[in-house]
Amino acid sequence: MALAGLGLTRTFHQGETTVRAVDGVSLTVDAGELVVVNGPSGSGKSTLLHLLGGLDRPDAGRVLLEGEDLSRLTERQLALVRRRRIGFLLQFFSLLPTLTVLENVALPLLLDGASHARARAEEALRRTGVAQRRAHRPGTLSGGEQQRAALARAIVTNPAVLLADEPTGSLDSASGQRIFELLREVAADTGVIVVSHDPRAAGYADRVVHLADGRVVVPEPHAPLASSRPR
Amino acid sequence: MKALVVSTAALLRLVGLRHLRRRWRRTLLTALGIASGVALVVSVAITYTTLERAIDSTALGAGQERTLIVRAAGAPSLDQRAAKAAREVPGVAAAVPIIRQISTVRHGGRRVRTLFLGTSSGGARAADGRTVRPLTAADGLLLSAALARRLSAWIGSAVVVETPDGPAEVPVTAIVRPTSGTAVNGGVYAVLSLSLAQRLFGRPGRLDAIAVRVRQDADEEVVRGLLARSLGPSVSVVSSEDLAAPFKRTFSAIVLTTRLVSLLALLVAILLVLNTQSMALTERHREICLLRLAGARPLPFVLAFVAEAALVGLVAGAVGVEAGAHLAQAKLDDARSAYATALPFTAVGPVSVSLWQALAGVACGALVAAGGALLTVRRILAIRPIELLRPKPAYAIAASEDHRPVSVPGVVGLLTILGTLALTTTTAAAGSAVLDAAGLLAMVAGGALLLPSFVRTTSDALRRGVLDRIGPIGWLAGGGIARAPSRTIFAVGALAMSATVALASGSAIGSFESATRSAVEGWYPAPIYARAPGVGVRGTDQPVNVAVGRRLATVDGVRAVYPGRVAVADQAREHLSIIVLPFAAAARHGVTLTQDVPAGDTRLVGAMASGSVLVSRPLASRLGLSPGGRLTLRTARGVRRFMVAGTFESINPTGEIYMDRSVFRQVMDDDRADFFAVSLRPGANVDATVARLTRFVERQHIPLQVMTRAQTRQQVIGTVSGVFAMANVIRITALVVVGLTVAATMLTAMFERQREIGLLRLVGMSRLRFVACVVLEAVCLTGMAGLLAIGLGLGAGYLILSAAANRLGMHLPFDPGLATIGAAILYTMLPACLAAIYTGWRCSRSAITVLLAPRA
Questions:
Q1: Nearest chain A Cα to B486, which residue?
Q2: Chain A, window 101-160: residues with a beta carbon less than 8 angstroms from a chain B beta carbon
Q3: pLDDT confidence band for B293 (50 / 70 / 90)
Q4: B594 DSSP assignment
Q5: Cβ neighbours of residue A58 under 8 Å, at least 6 residues apart?
Q6: pTM assigned to the model
Q7: Strand A191-195 and strand A161-165: pairing?
Q8: Total number of domains constituting chain A
C-alpha cells in the first residue's frame, strides 16, 4: 500500500461555526493505481488531499505512507517526505517565477544535494514533453506547458505517491487531456490521487471516490478502464 | 464627477476603513513612522522659532519697536550721565538706563541662572507696559512669576545672588506679571533698581546700555545719527534688529543641518508608506479583481486608496505635531544652554505651536501618506479581473537576465551625484536654503537613477562570486535577488535611502561635533585655568578684575598667570568677540595660550604685539577682509583701524578677533578678565597646584573656579554639547523613521512572496533552510544597500556640512569616522535582518495550505 488514509477527520472552527470538512474518511492507493476523488464544491476533496499529503494534520485518524505514520513525524521529517516521497501538482501552476523551468524541476533534487540533479530534471521534462522550454521562465510558458513542467517536478524524485489537486482546472481542453494522459502514464509505477471536477478524469481512473459533506458517499469498486479512454 | 465621488466614498467606507481596522498593527506602524517624521520637522521648526522669538524679545531685555540701543564701544560700560544726554536728543521719547547682567540666584536649595535687569523707576514702568508699582532705591528684587516659581520664592523671601564680590543676599519685594507681548528671557528674569544693580554687580555710576525709544514722528536713522554725535565716539548706537542679527546667525548652521536631516527623514517616511500600501495592495488584490469584475472602474480605487492613506496621515500628522511640541520643549533647554554665552538669554519660555504650524504639520502627514500611496497607483491601474483566475507575483519577473553593467540612466545618475557634490563645494551655491534642499533632492534623484544599474551589477557579482557557490540556499537567494529586479531594486532602494539618512545625519553632525571638540582643545592648552563665574564657551557672566591674576601668581608652583578676556564689540551688524590674551608676554616664556597663535610663530606674535589682530575666517569672509587689510573697531579712544595679521579657522559663526593684551589696554577701558591661564614652575605637580590655588581663592573670597586643562575642556565641551544633544535627538528621531521603514521593507518583501514561500515548503524545503535562505537574501540586500548608502550617505552628509559651512564662511572638515559609518550601516542591516528572520520564522510556521491559498 503506497498511501493509506484511515478514518480521517478534520474540523475547522470559523467564529462560532464549526465545519467538519472531512469526516471519518478512509482512502488508500497502491503503486500503479490512479484514484480520482470527486464531489461538489465544499465536499472536502482538497482538505482530504492536504491530509493525505501531510500538509495538514487530521483531528482524528492516521495517514500511512508506505507503512509510516505521517502524524508521528516532525516538521523536518515531513519536509523530507515532501521532498522525496510525495509529489504535488496544484491547480495554479506551482512553479517559482524566478527560476527557469529546469531549475524548478530540479529543485527537490538540489535541496537534497542529489547527484545529477539537472540531468534527472531534463529526463523528467522530456517525459512530460516540455524539455525544449527548460531554459525559459515560467511566465513565458503557456498554461499547459507550465502544468506539464509542474508535473515533471512532481515526478522527478520518483515519489511513492503523486497528489494532484484540480490539475486541469485552469487549462484548455487539449492541455487538460494531455495532463490526464501523463498522469495515467505516471500511475504505471506510482500511486496517483487526483481531485478533480473534470468529467474526463473518471475515464482515466482505476477507481473513483465520491465525496459529499466530508464523507465518502459511494466508493466505487475497481472499474475496468472505459473503452473511450485514449491510449 | 458625482458618481466618482460616490463610488470612491463607498470603496473607502466598505473596503479601506475596514482594512485599516483589520490590519491595525500595520496601520499603527505606518502612522508611527509618519508621526515620527512630522514630529521631527515640527520640533525643529518650533525650536528655532522659539529661539528666534526669544532673541527678538531679549536682545537687550527691551526688544520693542523703534528702539535704539546705546552701548559703550571699547569699554564694558557707559557713564551714567549718558542717559540724561540721550534724553535731550531731539526725537527721543524716552531713554531708559539699563544694567543687564546674567548671574545665578539661589533660594531654598534651588539655583537658577537668570537675567537681571537693573533700571530706573521710569524704566520699570516702560518695560512692564503696566505699572506694578514704581521701583525705588529701597527695593530689592522684582522677580518674574516664572522665576519666582522656579526658586519657590515669594515676596519677602531672601534670595542669594552671585556677584563679583561674592554671594549677596537680597530680599524679594515684588512679583512681576508677564506682559501680553513677548516675554523677556522666556519670562524668567529679575528686575531691580538701577542703584541696587550698580552696587551688586560692581558698576558704580555706570550703565551697560541705554534703551532709547524713538518718537513716532521722528526718523529712526536721523535720531541714531544725532545720538552718536551727541554722545561721542566712545558709544555705539544700534537698532534692536542689528543686535539680534548676529545672534540669529549663531545657530543658523545647526538649523540648516537639522532641517536638511528632517527633510531626508520625511522622504524615508514616504518609503515607509509605500511599503505598507504595497502590502495592503497585495492583500486586497483579489478583492480589487472581484470589484473590477463587478464593474468598478480603476479611478475610484486609486482615489480611495490614496484617501485611506491620507486619513492615516492626517491622524499621524496631528500626533506628530503634538509629539514635536513635546520634543521641542524637552530639548529646548539643551539648545538654549548650548548657546549660553552666544545668545543673550538664559531661558526661552514655553514653546508655542501656532495654528499655521499645527495645520502645516497635519497637512505634511497627509501629504507624505498620500505621496506614498500614489506611488502604488500604477499597480492598481494594472489590475485586471482575469487575475482572479491566475495568481501572479506582486512584482515583475524579468523574462531574461540583463547583464549590462551600466545604462544611460545609471550614468546620468552618477553624474548628477558627482555634479551636485562639486557644486556644493563652491561658494556660488552657498546661502540659499532652497538651493541646499534642491541639492539634496538632486542627490537622491541621482541615486534613484543609478540604483537599477547598481543593483544589477552588484547582484550579478554577488550571485556569481558568492551565492552560487554555497549550495541550494545561496543559489535560491541569488536567483531571487537577480531575477526579480523590480522587487530587489525597490528593497535595496528603500534600505539604501534609510541608511543614507542615518549616515548623512551622523556624518554631518559628527563632523561638526568633531571640529568643535578639536577647537575646544586648541583653546585651552595651559595646564591650569581659573575661570570667573558663569557659563560660557570662552567668556563668562561676571569677569573679575585683572589684578586678581597677580595674586594668583604668588601661589606655590605657579610660574606665571596670563589673564584672558572675551570682550564684546559692535561692528556694523556684527557682534564681535575680542579674545584678549598676552600673546607676546607668554611667547617670551615659550607659552602658547591658544593654538591659533602659537608661541613659536614669532612673525605673528610680533605683528600682534605691534597692534595687528587675527580675524576669524567667518568674520573675514563676511567683511571681505584678508591679511594686510584693515578692521575698523569702535574703541574707548574712538574709531580705530587695525591691521589684519591673518585669519584663523573658527567654529563660532559670530565674529572673533584675537588681540594682544598690550594693544587692548591701550584702546579699551576694560580691566577685567574672564579667565586666567596658569603656567607651572618646572617640576610642579598639576593636581597639587590646583588644590593650592583652590584653597587660595576660597580663603581670599575670589570668585574663581580652578580647574585642570582637561576639566576646563570638559566643562566647555559640556556647554556646547547641548547643541549636539538637540541634533542627536533629531538624528535619533530620524532613525526611528529609518528603522520602521527598513522593517516594513523586509516585511513587504516577504509578504509579497507568500505563495513562493509556500511552494518552497511544498517541495520539501525545511524551515531552518528556509529561514537561512531568507536571512541570506536579507544580508545580500542590506549589503548592497549599505554599499550604495556609503556613497550616497557620505555625499549627502558632505553636502549638508558644506552647505552649513559655506553659509557661515567656516571651514568644517568632513570627518565622519569609521565608527559613524559602521554604526549607520549596522543600524540599517540589523532591523532588516531581524525583520527578515521574524517574517521567515512566521512563514515557516504558517500552514503550507494557507501560504498557497489565494489571498482572501
A1: A98
A2: 103, 107-108, 110-113, 137, 139-140, 153
A3: low
A4: B
A5: A8, A9, A10, A22, A51, A71
A6: 0.72
A7: parallel
A8: 1
Q: What is the CATH number of the domain that holds A67?
A: 3.40.50.300
What is the number of CB-based contacts under 8 A between chain A and chain B? 84
B33 shares its domain with B165: no
Query: Is the pLDDT reported for residue B240 higher than 80?
Result: no
Do the chains contact at B764 and A83, CB–CB below 8 Å? Answer: yes
Which of B562, B552, B612, B565 is closest to B592 using CA atoms? B562
Q: Which helix (H) or strand (E) holds B115?
A: strand B110-119
Q: Is A140 in contact with B847 (Cβ distance < 8 A)?
A: no
For residue B219, what are the domain limits? 76-233
pLDDT band for position B607 (cuts 50, 70, 90): very high
* Residue A31 domain boundaries: 3-219
CA distance B64 to B49: 18
Any domain includes B714: no
- Verify that B221 and B275 share a domain, yes or no: no
Please, what's the b/e burial string for B728-757 (b: 16 or more CB within 10 A of its CB; e: otherwise)? bbbbebbbbbbbbbbbbbbbbbbbbbbbbb
CB within 8 Å: A98 and B480: yes
Residues of A with Cβ-Cβ distance to B397 under 8 angstroms = 97-98, 137, 139
pLDDT confidence of residue B135? 64
Interface contact flag, B763 A88, Cβ < 8 Å: yes
Q: Which three cell numbers stand for residue B667?
A: 584702546
Distance CA A48, CA A35 (A): 13
Residues of B in contact with A97 (CB under 8 A): 392-393, 397, 483-484, 756
Instruction: Indicate the residue among B369, B390, B411 that finishes a domain.
Output: B390
Q: What is the pLDDT of residues B394-403, one digit of tens each?
A: 555 555 555 5
- Condensed to tens digits (0 to 9), the pLDDT of residues B96-127 reads 888 888 888 999 889 888 888 888 755 554 44
Least CB-CB distance to B484: which of A82, A88, A98?
A: A98
Q: Do A137 and B399 make contact, defined as CB atoms within 8 angstroms?
A: yes
CB distance B630 to B644 below 8 Å: yes
Sort out which chain A residues have CB atoms less than 8 A from B762's CB and list them. Answer: 55, 82, 88, 90, 94
Q: Which carries the bigger pLDDT value, residue A127 or residue B12? A: A127
* Closest Cβ opposite residue A50 in set B391, B483, B849: B849
In whole angstroms, how large is the CA radius of gyration of chain B?
32
Give a yes or no: residue B780 inside a domain.
no
